[in-house]
Predict the 3D structure of the following.
Amino acid sequence: MSKPFLLFRGPVKTRSGYGAHSRDLLQALYEMDMFEIKIDSCMWGSTPMTALEDNLFHKWIESNIIGQLEKTPDIYVQVTVPNEFQRVGKFNIGVTAGIETTIAPKDWVDGCNRMDLIIATSTFSKDVLLQTVYNETEKNTGKLITQHKINKQIEVLFEGVDTSIYNNVYNNINIDIKEDFAYLFVGHWLKGDTGQDRKDVGMLIRCFADAFKGVGDRPGLVLKTSSATFSIKERESFRKKIEGLVKDIENPPSIYLLFGDLTNEEMNNLYNHPKIKSMVTITKGEGFGRPLLEFTMTGKPVIASNWSGHKDFLPMDKAIMIGGKLTEVHDSAVDTFILKDSKWFTANYGEVVEVFKLVYKDYNKFLEKSELLRVENLERFSMEKMKDKFKNIISPFSSQPKEQKLILPKLTKIK
């Protein structure tokens, strides 16, 4: 009996969070050996399409990318934001990291309802999607006509960490940090005024500078960041932004901009660099927070906002979770996904300053708990555990679903 035909659409070539997640899911499907798999490769914003490396699995991806769909897929898996979900197969699965705020857009609700099954990456994302409701009322009387909400099943499937790459082994990477102790931030620096961008990078810099201004022994802060590209123009823009944020602080501590493309192995070596002692983020919201999970494999402490997707793998008793409150999204950060009427997290900046000082002063105390977290996450959030759960989710659909009348879209291969 022939295998069911599965078409997988995602940004498989891109250096992005969605790209990495797409490749992980594809590898899981490839290893299941239950489907005839073809791939519809797409872009992800302006992120570079240079992620495929010279290895057998990535060559398999390249060889199975198609430009024209010739038959209806038995199963269609689409990895993207929900407004882009489309019915293409007999059974349609939408995979999304979800949302960073308290409300999903209306077209996300509609997109989810076009699919037969939704897979989200965190409990937080699932809850926000299911709790989002739009009331449609009669214009003159205000009488409720109907409620628009997601009526499809949503499963949670975490983004597993590849422990063959991300672990506590250091193989040397050349980074010129003069301090023996440095905090590390990893993430995009996105649109928004200071204190309003999604990762809250500007206020992270301000809090660090306030914590260690003056003289004496002080740690450094390493920012591994970009917006989408790695152009010289963008690098210089970030350098000027950093200088502007600390220009009124007398004798600020060292802040390093690490700008450029690193392989997975180089990222693990960065995480494990002996001068990198802790990862920190005061993000306003995460659908999952992949770098944070990767960093826990080092056994070093993680400092993070006590809200959103990363709470699945950063428990209060083993990570350093920053308090704060939900605040309205600022106009400077609003876009088609991050809505004006929604809220997200704003850290207690005074607490951030004190936590910076405390971790630097009593590092070994936090190191004991983070080692326990390494062991726990190694067991619960590995790539192998993710593959097992994904197989349990998709196996019931491995038999060929009943034919439906669908219009086959034309696919465009992106070179």
About this structure: The first helix runs from residue 17 to 32. Residues 404-410 have pLDDT under 50 and may be disordered.
